[in-house]
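Anyone have tokens for ATP-dependent 6-phosphofructokinase? Sequence:
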Amino acid sequence: MKIGLLTSGGDCPGLNAVIRSAVLHGIKSYGDTFLGFRHGWAGVLADDAVSLVRADVKGLAREGGTILGSSRTNPFDGPNGGADAVAEVLERRQVDALVAIGGEGTLAGAKRLADAGLPVIGVPKTIDNDLRGTDYTFGFDTAVSIATDAMDRLRTTGESHRRCMVAEVMGRNVGWIALHSGLAAGAHAVLIPEQPVSMDQLCAWVTEVHERGRSPLVVVAEGFVPEGTETAPALATAADGRPRGVGEVITAAIEERTGIETRNTSLGHVQRGGNPTGFDRVLATRFGMAAVDLVRDRQWGRMVSIQGTEIVRVDLTAALDGLKTVPAERWAEARALFGR
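Reply: yep, here.
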């Protein structure tokens, strides 16, 4: 079979590991050939593709980013989009199956194409870990590790000056990165979109820690909404809808209300760059191999997933039924340690 691969949406550590394992497994186990579409769905619509052979993927598992490039183009965008246009490209290139590696938007496009009768499957990807249908997505562990390391460094400089340190992490709609990195770094407060917290409560936690002679560490997800407000208190909003500057707003409020010198650090895209962790390399590698097996079984409209420790197959609709948010009990578990 001739299999097409594409990576779409925000870049993510582990994408190259998926490409590598899919190509190697397909060639060695089934005698498949591979074609990589450049820049996600944009490459499919523009018929911009490159052949992928073993030499092209050598050593890729440890490298961040994606050799195929990415974009946020939807396959149904514009006058040249749609199922018929995609089908024409696949037929012209003699592609028997298309593997779409991406997040919610990418997989939604893949689902529509599969429903239209095209041979498309999915591989779930996002550093936010907010996709349903899978326990974890590759890239999440790397983002948490990067954020945790940064917070460890912030704590040492904070302790030197008895400052309160605020770390803003990604998480427009869900707080998985904030929760996990905050717990790992021993944060004194973690603020996530799913759980409103009043500024009075936050300042009480900060003051409690500072009065014990410690430097408070506050972790805030970019989409956090304080109690009593309806939107994130950001300084601005990015073109893609992401709030910007919530860390600065929180920092100013803490300093004004408590008198404690406070500094903010926004980790931004640092969280999604660089090489993947060992966990993400393994997960991405298993996903890539399982995706090829899924293609061989012609189970179009499905995606690979991890449940527990097992790689399973689920319908793409499982990933598109809303976002996987942080359960209240998980945040309550962490809250028991805030201000301590």
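DSSP finds ten helices and 13 strands in the chain.
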